[in-house]
Design a protein that fits this description.
By secondary structure, the protein is an alpha/beta fold. The chain has nine helices and eight strands. A five-stranded parallel β-sheet has the order 2-6-1-7-8. Strands 3-4-5 form a three-stranded antiparallel β-sheet, covered by helices on one side. It is globular.
Length: about 240
C-alpha cells in the first residue's frame, strides 16, 4: 500500500469527491473516487433489471460490470462499458440503490481488493476517498482524514450539486435523503466518527477553497507532497459520495 498518500472518509454530502480531487491536483497526485465504483455497479444493476436486494446478484454485478474511471484529478469521468455514466450515477435513484451494493460484504471485499490494486499502482501518490478508506482499505495511510459537516450544510451542498448538474431536486427531499443515509451508515459502521488515528476535518463553516487548503496542510504536515503546494483549482458546487 505504498501508493496511498491521503485517505479521506466521511458521510454523504460532506464534499469528499470535489475536495479530494482538488487536493490531489494541488499535491500533484492521482485521485480515486471509490464511491463512484459503488454507484456505477448500482447504476448497472438498475439498467439491466438486476435484483439488487439479492446479495448473490450484487456480487455477480461486481464481477461482470465493465467499469473504468479516470484517476487524473484534471479529468472526471466514469464509464460502464462504452457508456459514460459520470452524471447518471449521481441521480437520486442510483444513490438509493447504492445501499444494496454497499451492504453486501462480498461485494465490498471484491471492490476493496480492486481499490488496493489501483492505489498500489498510483504514482507518485494518490488521494483516495470513500467508505472504509481510512479503516479498511488504507488503514496505514500516512494521512487519514474524516471530512464531515453538519447535516444541514451537507444537504445544502448536495442540493446545489444536483441543481448545478441540471437535475431536478427538491431541497426538502434532499435533506430527508441525507438524514436517511446517515441513519443507514451509522447502523452499518461507525461512519460518522473518526477511527483512532484519523484526523477529523469539520467543513461546516469552511468554504470549498478553505477545506481543500486544510487537507493540503494536513498532508504537508505529515511530510506528504511537494515542499510548495500551488493553490487548489476553484470548483463550482460540491461533489459528494
Amino acid at each position: 500500500m505504498t501508493g496511498v498518500v491521503v485517505a479521506i472518509d466521511g458521510p454523504a454530502g460532506s464534499g469528499k469527491s470535489s475536495v479530494s480531487r482538488a487536493a490531489a491536483a494541488a499535491l500533484g497526485f492521482r485521485y480515486l473516487d471509490t464511491g463512484a465504483a459503488y454507484r456505477a455497479i448500482a447504476w448497472n444493476g438498475l439498467e439491466t433489471g438486476a435484483d439488487l436486494a439479492d446479495p448473490d446478484e450484487v456480487v455477480r454485478l461486481v464481477a461482470t460490470t465493465d467499469l473504468e474511471q479516470a484517476l487524473d484529478p484534471g479529468e472526471h469521468w466514469v464509464r460502464v462499458g462504452d457508456r459514460e455514466v459520470t452524471v447518471a450515477i449521481r441521480e437520486p435513484r442510483v444513490s438509493a440503490a447504492t445501499t444494496f451494493v454497499a451492504r453486501t460484504q462480498e461485494a465490498r471485499d471484491r471492490l476493496n481488493a480492486w481499490f488496493r490494486e489501483l492505489i498500489a499502482a498510483a504514482e507518485p501518490g494518490v488521494v483516495v476517498e470513500g467508505r472504509d478508506i481510512t479503516t479498511v482499505v488504507a488503514p496505514d495511510a500516512p494521512v487519514r482524514i474524516l471530512l464531515t459537516a453538519d447535516p444541514a450544510a451537507r444537504a445544502q451542498r448536495r442540493w446545489k450539486e444536483l441543481t448545478a448538474s441540471g437535475a431536478e431536486a427538491d431541497a426538502d427531499a434532499v435533506h430527508a435523503a441525507i438524514a436517511e443515509r446517515d441513519a443507514r451508515d451509522s447502523a452499518m459502521v461507525e461512519f460518522l466518527r473518526a477511527a483512532p488515528g484519523v484526523e477529523t476535518l469539520d467543513s461546516t463553516a469552511l468554504s470549498f477553497d478553505e477545506t481543500v487548503e486544510a487537507v493540503v496542510r494536513l498532508a504537508r504536515g505529515a511530510g506528504v507532497g511537494p515542499a510548495a503546494v500551488p493553490s487548489a483549482p476553484a470548483e463550482q458546487g460540491e461533489a459528494t459520495s
